[in-house]
UniProtKB/TrEMBL annotation:
Family: Belongs to the acyl-CoA dehydrogenase family.
PANTHER family hit by this protein: ACYL-COA DEHYDROGENASE, ACYL-COA DEHYDROGENASE FADE34
Protein name in the entry: Acyl-CoA dehydrogenase
InterPro entries listed in its UniProt record: Acyl-CoA_Oxase/DH_mid-dom, Acyl-CoA_Oxase/DH_mid-dom_sf, AcylCo_DH-like_C, AcylCoA_DH/ox_N, AcylCoA_DH/ox_N_sf, AcylCoA_DH/oxidase_NM_dom_sf, Mycobact_Acyl-CoA_DH
Organism: Actinomadura madurae
Keywords: FAD, Flavoprotein, Oxidoreductase
UniProt GO molecular function: flavin adenine dinucleotide binding; oxidoreductase activity, acting on the CH-CH group of donors
Amino acid sequence: MDFSRIELDDEQRAFEAEVREVFENHWTPDPHALNLDHERPSKELIEQLAERGWVHPRSPRSRGGAELDAVRARILDLLQVEYRVPRFGNGLILPTVRKYGSDQLRATALPALESGRASFCLGYSEPDSGSDMAAARTRAVRDGDEWVINGAKMFTTYAEIADYVFLLARTGPVEEKHRSLTMFLVPMDTPGIEVKPISAMGHVGTNMTFYRDVRVPDSYRLGPVGEGWRVVSEPLATEHGAGEGSELAELNGSMGSAFVRTLEEMLDLAVEWARTTELEPGVLAIDDPLVRHALAGVLLDIEVEWNTPSEFGKVTASETLLRDAELLVDLMAPAGVLAEGADGAAAQGSAAWARAMAPATQIYGGTTDIWRNNVGRSSLGLPRSR
């Protein structure tokens, strides 16, 4: 684990200045926005980032990236935090589309996804199956060179703006469970797809999507028929990572990395509070040894999470966010517990909002307990629980 600091050279400082110029000219930052807000950058900013290969900055230029080295990628990452630029990207499914996509998909959808000019949503969860993805009942039936899809998906966040849905469908008997699933990349403008918004706590929302006789060519299938579980297992493993050592963190694809970035943003808010708040006349909170110790502890937790092996990432990042969000809000009390709109609320209520949202991270993408079992089986060789 490397806790060292580096001095930027002239070229790296020039790159930092370029990134700042792009954000200052094409983005109006909300200083109290958080990574868990499920927001997306403006189309103007997305185009600026895509033009420079900064949506997937460490990818090769031949794949829409910028081939940034680790230092420049981290500069871009930290400035996205500073300017509160919402995270987005398609790194979660890009390797899958490259590996399993048809020639047509690789020629049409892939370049737009690689650059970031196109986006996707996940068609995993269903109303009656919860965290058991393999119990999917959305059905795809072969009809000549097409598939006819009928069913419903829950929690399809970003479906209202996505260009594609990464869809898990049943193509065989339900009793075969994992062995009768097939993956598709379906254009969201296909006739028969309906998106209905679902309101959630605060200003976060998601969607339910319905598929009624949706016809897609076989060229939109990903991988062999009946092997959808194998196909989807790779992005699932990516989604539940966090550490910088994983491909997914570099591509902004992991759920765990989103939790860590939210904690980074909360720490920034807490530091700003400490620098501007007097605990007693003439004594700033930042000068109190106990406050400094608490802030330093959160910073160390963040460093540990960025170096956590990816298979443990979602579990540890969620638990760390839950614990440290509570600590930071308590540290800023009573202002820290006040919600948005309340007089005297710390960071206009963002700290209290993050604390309220933190418990939900233990459910996103499968509960923490489910992923503990997965880690036990895959990494520790433990038997399946009964």
